[in-house]
Fold:
Amino acid sequence: MIPKEDKEFFWDYYDIYSQIDSDFGGGSPFYKTFLMAYLIKYQDMKTFVEIGVYKGKCLLPLAYIIKQNKGVAIGIDPYNNMCAREYDVEEEKRIAINEFIDKLDFNMIYKEVLAKKEAMGLSSNCEIINKTSESAWEDLMSKRTVINMLHIDGNHDTKYVVMDAEKYVPMVSDFGVVVFDVINWDSVNVVYQKYKAELIPIFECDSFAILLKAERTQTNLDKARVMEKKFSYLYKKLLYMNKEIDEGIIDTKIPNVAIGVLTYNHEKYIEKCLDGIFFQKGKFNKNVFIVDDCSTDSTYDKICNYLKRNGNKLKDFNIRSVRNDLNKGVVKTFHSLVNMTKGFDYVSFCEGDDYWINPSRVKNHIDFLKNNPECCMSFNQAYVFWQNTGFFEESVIHCNLNRRVYNIEDVLKVNIIGNQGCAFFDGRIIDLLPDSLFEVFIGDWMLNMFCATFGDIGYIPDVMTICRKHSGGIWTSLSGMQQLKDIIKNIDEYNRYMEFIYDKEYTKQRNNCIVENNGDFSENLDLVIIDDIFPCDMSGFRYQEFTSYLEEIENTKIMITGQTIEQFLHLNVDEVIIQYKRSYPGFSGKVCRYDYWRPIGCKLMYFVFPTNAYNALPIMEHYYIPFVFTLYPGGGFALNNSESDIRLKRLMESPYFKKVIVTQQVTYDYLINNKFCSLEKIEFIFGGVMPLMEYNKAKSYNKIRYGFEKENFDICFVAQKYRKKGEHKGYDVFIDIAKVLCGMYVNIHFHVVGGFDENDIDISNIKNHITFYGKLNIDNFDSFFKDKDIILSPNMHGKLSYGNFDGFPTGSCVEAGLRKTAIFCTDSLNLNGDRIVNGKEIVIIPYDAKKASEIIEYYYKNPKLIKDIGDNCQEKLLYLFGYEYQIAPRIKILKDEIEKSFLHF
Structure:
């Protein structure tokens, strides 16, 4: 027995587990219970509940672990012959089970389990409830028990598994776990599949599965992916170790170790490196691979002479030395070296200018990983040797470490492992390294992060590596500013490669690298946009506009405050950003959360809506950054509104104001008539940006129309809700129109998209003729508008606030019109002019329910006119809201401003 104080977690647990017998009646396998123990230990769980204790093979060892967390374990088992019988199994198996049960003395088993519990010192934290799970549930509910881990153990009939899950799963805490046993039994699997769909799977094998109880958000699904990867690695490792333990060879098997040396122009240091490798002692097969990347000095000659000179001393080593014919660079050369080291039990690397100082380094790491299977790699403390001064110092990173086990979250914060000469890998991890990993700059940090996705990282606080710093090093030869620029570039690559699972962590590290020094910036950009809702596609026009800028203006960055996303759309900003980056992985470092301004070299800033520009004005004036903004209706702009006017005046008097883009004639006239700015600073592009629809796809849109493919006449209203009755969007008028028309015709139906519902305005008289859809995003529009004949938009300026008005046509009308839905809308400010022809391409209605109803009734009686208007409107909108009319001019405006020289005032 290993002395208690010297035991590792794995062997400590294994000793406890081994004290309990199992038989045909049950007994969870070691690899399963260790996964559960790992979760309990490292997730600091406090309450474990097991349904089906039997001999305690699972309960008691886990009670031992949870006791260390100052938690409790509760086992539930009636220890009753009748309750143990099986009926939902095939006849042959049922007979075998019941014959076995008939031979058992359940009372004796129960007493033995209680005795073992006492003998193991678990009386204070382990309770066994000798009742059915249904009765025990009542006891636990009365105590308001919250479960962190629920284990539905053993094979029971379906009705009992259903009951256990229905009663106990709701008691599991958020981010607690549910373990289903024997999922390969039909009686359990049918229940497991139901909860697999509701909860989040984090591990599954043939015989059991672990589910995470959490909302199925993108963040939680990503978290589950990370956990699943770790558990899959650990599970396979445990199976292998369990086999070695059973065969009695775990302590006698001689492991195969590969040591890789990567060198380039290290003639002054390579022999010291080789000394540290070839004086390694221990009971393991020693394999050394040396790759020289076509050094221009005598490095390779020194390697050859060293091997020849020390031939007798190196007879215990299998050695392969290779020199590249051409210099391939560090990444390609390291890739070759990694491929050489695949297929070994353990792997370690050392660069040719570093060296090891402990002859037991490899042995110590092997022992550590064997005793800590939850770790996929380990590392040791290092000293740094400054070649130019001859001075040794402790690694700044290592001297502050105070734990034995770390994880990927720790590595993301800082490269705690440091130099590769400190690291040591389970060979299974090296075997899993994909070729694609070497398509990015695979430095020490990235390799360690990727490997850490498979398991934890062990730390040995013994100095066994010397990391040499000298002027000839590739990295140390770079200036501090160039190092930061390279790190930023690498972080963007790493984030993209890791599928943005750790976007928040990477972004934080990236931001730490953004600095300025005497006018030199670590990040230089042509265009910066600060916005409150992008990249949420609920704002389709911004989604399209900003994405186009990212595509067409190379050095563009968009920073998201996220206020509107959180306050009005109730979405997680970080998840919205990650979702966008996964759609556009090339924009890895170009879209990020905005907290405060960092010193960025920026040529131009751009905003939609004056409020966003106004909020950023102190930044632009402090850092001398020119800016352009679009003055859409809304977003802090209103006609003859003093607050809006003050904001506009302040913006346009700034020496850094360059251009304003307006989208409505009334806006253009207002700026000129009130002398806000000179004419040459105003760019008029009618309408505004909308999500682009490919022309041929739009024309082939399969519309189901009233009077042709269907008998019902369908009218829709689509708008965001800002007030209860939605007067500014004309929702009250829409309902009045619906009441008029429903009183006349039974086949007219109304459809509402947005935040409105049946409680905003009384609809009791038309409740069978109106449907509410809630909020829809762009992806839903194709299906929604497919059978809608008219979109009705009776909006009125000045209703939301003084001077407020909507653009013409509204965004929802454009979305509908692009899908051949006839637009019936008001135009109280005559914003349209003659651009969209009334009666041919659109129908302008009065802000009057009775008169508007009469116009709609006329078209109801003439369905072909509605069809023609829908087709004609689509053609016009494809032109007015196409790329060449909307996006291209904006890109030109921004590029022209970026290219202008700008003198600081």
